[in-house]
Design a protein that fits this description.
Length: 341
């Protein structure tokens, strides 16, 4: 299998497929398990992720790559195989979240800067040896009338660009994720404000990527959609799609092979509908697909409920959602397809 960055990126952006973000940190997966009353242990995390990665239909037909947390990359399935091997056997690419989290930014109250650059070169070599061929780093930018500040956007964009350069040196495709938060504090911003902030953030991010000599052909962008705050949601599917595409066309060079959205707290159906609407407005300069965490997993997690007897139901729920997202990646999803299932 070829190892050129462009080719890995092309595999990740296979038409009609997208990425499963299963890279919840130990703290975040605990929150997800709390919703089904399940204790988060190394074994329960393994069982849950093994269920997802061995959902045959979803993994073979709709998922081109899986973002893992470090624990999972080095974890074995119940049959003794590495979990990453199961992903590769299904024809998907394993990837790894490499940032160490968004930390309060000194002198910038209410804002964070994402950390993880120290020692990253050595960690990337270890991850590559374990089979990871792409990575993810997420910056988080809260929206209010005055936030995010220029300083926080700049610091986060610079870190993203330094990370991306280290990945490319290591033969790993960087997913560059500058998330403009929909559910941050205060969370009541308008879609207009979201558009303004997203445009400035992407503009600065691509400036920093150029300054750090990152190859655009060998990266994937993972943005948030332009959408009003979680406490003020009222924009139509059409408006979200139009504004998001307008910003992306203004800021993302056509040399970037693909854009894979995060779901960011949208419901599963909203995230599916928005992606489909955008793809239906094509042709577009880049592949536009999903890299959802919650919007791909919520239904599967509920159907499973932490019970071994529900594994088949969990796989079915995951396959259904992955199929809906795949249709959205082709611009062919319709609401009545949800009911048909
Ligand atoms: P959500 O789709 O749940 O926002 O997660 C995607 C992700 O990877 C965030 O970093």
């Amino acid at each position: 299998m070829s190892e050129r960055l462009e080719e890995i990126a092309a595999r990740m952006m296979t038409a009609g497929k997208g990425l499963l973000a299963a890279d919840e940190s130990t703290a975040t997966i605990k929150k997800r398990f709390d919703t089904i009353g399940l204790e988060s242990t190394e074994t329960s995390r393994r069982d849950y992720r093994q269920m997802l990665f061995s959902a045959e239909e979803a993994m073979r037909d709709f998922i081109s790559g899986v973002i893992l947390y470090e624990e999972t990359l080095f974890q074995k399935a119940s049959d003794g195989r590495q979990l990453a091997e199961i992903i590769v056997a299904a024809g998907a690419v394993p990837g790894i979240k490499v940032d160490t989290g968004a930390k309060p930014m000194a002198l910038f109250p209410g804002e964070t800067v994402t950390e993880g650059l120290d020692g990253l070169r050595d960690r990337l070599a270890k991850y590559h040896a374990a089979g990871a061929r792409f990575a993810k780093w997420r910056a988080a930018l809260p929206v209010s009338d005055t936030l995010p500040s220029f300083g926080a956007i700049k610091a986060n964009a610079h870190a993203l660009a330094r990370y991306a350069a280290l990945c490319q040196e290591a033969g790993i495709v960087p997913i560059v994720e500058p998330e403009v938060l929909m559910d941050g504090v205060p969370g009541n911003h308008s879609i207009k404000r979201s558009e303004e902030v997203t445009e400035e953030t992407l503009r600065i991010t691509f400036e920093e990527l150029a300054d750090q000599r990152v190859s655009l052909e060998g990266m994937i962008l993972k943005p948030s959609m332009v959408i009003d705050g979680k406490k003020a949601r009222k924009a139509s599917v059409q408006e979200v799609a139009e504004r998001t595409l307008r910003v992306l066309k203004r800021t993302v060079p056509a040399a970037v092979p693909g854009i894979a959205f995060l779901s960011g707290g949208q419901t599963t159906e909203e995230a599916t509908a928005h992606l489909s609407a955008m793809n239906a407005m094509g042709p577009l300069p880049w592949t536009l697909t999903f890299s959802y965490g919650r919007a791909l997993q919520t239904e599967a997690l509920e159907a499973w409920g932490g019970r071994p007897e529900n594994i088949a139901a969990g796989k079915r729920a995951f396959s259904h959602r992955a199929k809906m997202c795949s249709l959205a990646a082709r611009g062919q999803w319709k609401k009545d397809m949800e009911k048909a299932a």
